[in-house]
């Protein structure tokens, strides 16, 4: 039947996965003689597939997709619904990035009525971390033949149960005749134990073990995120009265009137439009650290960190004989290979030992004397003096205490402009904390509060990303798809409310056959789950994949992409399952404008080299 079907539909079958527990349904020689790969995975018709079975299924499919992109994959159990659906949905979630509800809904629509046995779809939800079946899930209607099959199965179970009870009763009567009461009770207990530990018991334990194993594995795949900011982790937020007093003191020092606005300097992006600024001033360069931007306040030998929201956090650092001092810098966290410290940053469900470092790159006040009007050289001299003073003081008292302190302060090294290439190629890859790009600071200018047109920041364009919906269009092929954005000028986040989308979400984007229009394809969609706000999906570009398997992984997903200047093509970076809509057309157009102005790494280093030669 399969062979005739593929001839009629002019489609070639390349792989057969047989999920039955018997050999009478498929003759593997029939397929191998026709150059069709045959894989047998023996599955009991009444049990949840075990992890080993699922691993074999995944590796078989992946290997086939990598080597043979043109042939169809046929997967079938006895009836082709519950067990078949379980394997396919598991693959979609595990390998293709679908959420569980979305994958089950897609399978149920494609192979109606779909997975209709509760034990299977319930196990799938549990496999991937959900304790209960989502309310949005529409239970499949059990077909008539399915009801008959379940009824017959229940009758068999009842008959078997009655036979067991009758047999147990006969055994109990015989034991009572031939033994004392205690032996009888023990014997009955043993039989109960055998019943729970027999065929059904083993099945239940295997099922639970698989589900737990799947749940743990699913958690490993979750994106690791910091649960708290570094400031909240290392510092203790001061009370509102103290915070108000500290704000008043700082505002008085700087004659600053905006008590709720961070006064730190903010760099502007370095582009081809403002690159001439690098030739107008002498510049030092350093790496761009990715941490919490903050300022350090030392007042009456107490130490505070000031966040960008102008909130104050008290930290444990000690600075004897230092008072009325403000330093600018970044708080970063670096992992410790082995440490007795109890301080850690929480990442996902794991806890890693970290050390917290305040990288100081500028000075505004030192011991009551203002330095923000001085040039960079004088300001950095003050920074080094403060750090050396602290180290010298601690080395005389308790150096080990300083080394074990959860909060440390270091000078952020800064270099002449000619060392930019060395920073990018040799220094940055070996820095323990997250970083990207470069910061260019003018040497002969004072510290500038808020936005500074002379303080420049360059970030590789690869790090400037945008969210697309990836889907087929009329002229797409096995290795290409369209990049779609939302034609709606709004600052909304367009994020979903949970992991599982509505059933209708899939219908908007379901265009796998490529019949969805032309290059100007537009689709109406609900924005951010709000029924009254409708936007248009517009194809703005095309993305190229290495093979069909990579394309399937990203198809019909909201994907964060970056533009690769080397290949001049968009590349996928990360799937966002919780997002319901891509970024707006407005954001995309802004990014395209920046692309024309932005330096790539090679262009930037060439431009700097010209400045140095002059």
TrEMBL record:
Bias (Basic and acidic residues) occurs at 202-220
* SUPFAM superfamilies xrefs: (Phosphotyrosine protein) phosphatases II, DNA ligase/mRNA capping enzyme, catalytic domain
Residue stretches of biased makeup (Acidic residues)? 499-518
Protein name, entry field: mRNA-capping enzyme
* GO process terms (BP): 7-methylguanosine mRNA capping; DNA recombination; DNA repair
Domain Tyrosine specific protein phosphatases: where? 55-122
Q: Which residues are in the ATP-dependent DNA ligase family profile domain?
A: 349-501
Originating species = Anaeramoeba flamelloides
Give the domain of life: Eukaryota
Spell out the PROSITE patterns in the cross-references.
Answer: DNA_LIGASE_A3, TYR_PHOSPHATASE_2
Instruction: Give one GO molecular function term.
Output: mRNA guanylyltransferase activity
Q: Where is this region: Disordered?
A: 180-222, 494-528
């Amino acid at each position: 039947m399969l062979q005739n079907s593929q001839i009629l539909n002019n489609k070639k079958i390349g792989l057969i996965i047989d999920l039955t527990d018997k050999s009478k349904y498929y003759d593997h020689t029939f397929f191998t003689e026709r150059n069709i790969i045959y894989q047998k995975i023996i599955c009991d018709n009444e049990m949840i597939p075990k992890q080993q079975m699922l691993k074999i299924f995944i590796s078989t499919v992946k290997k086939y997709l990598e080597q043979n992109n043109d042939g169809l994959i046929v997967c079938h159990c006895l009836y082709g619904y519950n067990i078949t659906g379980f394997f396919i949905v598991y693959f979609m979630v595990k390998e293709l990035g679908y959420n569980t509800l979305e994958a089950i809904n897609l399978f149920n629509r494609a192979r109606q009525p779909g997975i209709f046995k509760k034990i299977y779809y319930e196990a799938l939800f549990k496999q991937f971390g959900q304790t209960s079946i989502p309310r949005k899930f529409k239970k499949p209607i059990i077909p008539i033949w399915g009801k008959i099959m379940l009824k017959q199965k229940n009758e068999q179970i009842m008959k078997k149960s009655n036979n067991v009870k009758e047999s147990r009763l006969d055994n109990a009567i015989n034991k009572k005749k031939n033994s004392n009461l205690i032996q009888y009770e023990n014997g009955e207990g043993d039989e109960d134990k055998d019943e729970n530990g027999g065929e059904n018991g083993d099945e239940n334990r295997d099922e639970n073990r698989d589900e737990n194993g799947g749940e743990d594995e699913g958690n490993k795949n979750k994106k690791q995120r910091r649960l708290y900011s570094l400031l909240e982790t290392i510092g203790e937020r001061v009370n509102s009265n103290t915070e108000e007093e500290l704000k008043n003191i700082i505002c008085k020092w700087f004659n600053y009137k905006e008590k709720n606005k961070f006064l730190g300097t903010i760099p502007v992006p370095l582009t081809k439009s403002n690159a001439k600024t690098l030739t107008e001033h002498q510049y030092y360069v350093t790496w761009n650290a990715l941490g919490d931007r903050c300022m350090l306040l030392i007042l009456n030998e107490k130490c505070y960190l000031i966040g960008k929201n102008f909130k104050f956090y008290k930290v444990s650092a000690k600075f004897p004989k230092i008072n009325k001092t403000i330093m600018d810098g970044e708080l970063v966290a670096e992992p410790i290979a082995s440490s007795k410290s109890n301080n850690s940053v929480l990442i996902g469900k794991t806890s890693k030992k970290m050390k917290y470092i305040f990288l100081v790159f500028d000075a505004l006040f030192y011991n009551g004397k203002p330095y923000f009007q001085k040039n960079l050289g004088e300001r950095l001299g003050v920074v080094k003096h403060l750090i050396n003073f602290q180290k010298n003081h601690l080395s005389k008292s308790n150096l080990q205490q300083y080394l074990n302190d959860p909060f440390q302060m270091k000078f952020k090294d800064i270099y002449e402009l000619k060392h930019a290439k060395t920073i990018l190629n040799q220094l940055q890859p070996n820095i323990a904390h997250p970083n990207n790009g470069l910061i260019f600071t003018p040497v002969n200018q004072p510290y500038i509060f808020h936005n500074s047109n002379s303080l420049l920041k360059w970030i590789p364009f690869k790090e400037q990303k945008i969210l697309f919906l990836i889907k087929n269009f009329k002229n797409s092929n096995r290795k290409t798809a369209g990049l779609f954005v939302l034609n709606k000028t709004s600052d909304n986040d367009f994020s979903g409310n949970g992991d599982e989308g509505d059933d209708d979400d899939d219908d908007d984007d379901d265009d796998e056959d490529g019949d969805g229009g032309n290059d100007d394809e537009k689709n109406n969609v609900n924005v951010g789950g709000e029924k009254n706000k409708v936007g248009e999906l517009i194809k703005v570009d095309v993305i190229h994949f290495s093979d069909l398997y990579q394309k399937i992984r990203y198809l019909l997903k909201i994907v964060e992409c970056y533009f690769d200047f080397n290949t001049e093509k968009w590349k996928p970076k990360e799937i966002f399952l919780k997002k319901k809509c891509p970024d707006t057309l407005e954001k995309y157009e802004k990014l395209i404008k920046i692309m024309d102005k932005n330096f790539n790494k090679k262009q930037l280093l060439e431009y700097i080299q010209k400045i140095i030669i002059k």
